[in-house]
Amino acid sequence: MSRFAVLIGEINHGLADLDKITCQTQALLKKVEVTADDDYLGTIALNVHSFYSGAERIFRDIASSIDNALPEGADWHRRLLRQMAIAVPDIRPAVLSEASLKQLDELCRFRHVVRNVYAFELVPERVNDVATELPNCLLQLERDLRSFCEFLAALNGSLSGS
């Protein structure tokens, strides 16, 4: 078995989960549009929270498997995100592009709000704006992670060939 096969499998599984949550969120946005029922907003916000948590799970897997360094402290979420956006010399290229970093940083901030306010305190326009951007975020994240998986596969090939 290749050295990075499990990590590549975990990344692909994580991306499939992010695709599902994105599709569910878009369906809920359509329901809000059709019904004008703001009762869906809490679920939409929770889905956005879940999307970010799923992406973060992938980043933790990469940080522990490849970097051998998981950030600690109160701001570990933000530090992990930044860690994924930098190249680690002699170890790996940046996992995330600047575009993904910007989008995911926004989702990280939104997730913090979701975790710390009551659902009835959520601002409908903000929930809608963040949720509407989820497909674009997923598309960019998929590009970045597929490229990273190609790096891992190539690295595995060079390791097994030596």
What is the compact description of this entry?
The protein has helices spanning 5-35, 41-67, 76-84, 98-116, 124-132, 134-160. The protein is mainly α and 162 residues long.
Give Rg in angstroms: 17 Å
Q: Total strand count, please?
A: 0
Alpha-beta classification: mainly alpha
**Termini Cα gap:** 16 Å
Mean pLDDT: 93
Succession of helices and strands: HHHHHH
Biggest sheet overview: none
**Spans where pLDDT lies below 50 across 5 or more residues:** none
Describe the protein's topology.
Elements: H1 5-35, H2 41-67, H3 76-84, H4 98-116, H5 124-132, H6 134-160
Helix pairs in contact: 1-2, 1-6, 2-3, 2-4, 2-5, 3-4, 4-6
Task: Give short descriptive properties of this protein.
162 residues, elongated, 75% helix
Description of the structure:
The protein is an all-alpha fold and 162 residues long. The chain has six helices and no strands. The protein has helices at residues 5-35, 41-67, 76-84, 98-116, 124-132, 134-160. Helix 2 crosses helix 3 and helix 2 (41-67) crosses helix 5 (124-132). The radius of gyration is 17 Å and the shape is elongated. The two termini are 16 Å apart.
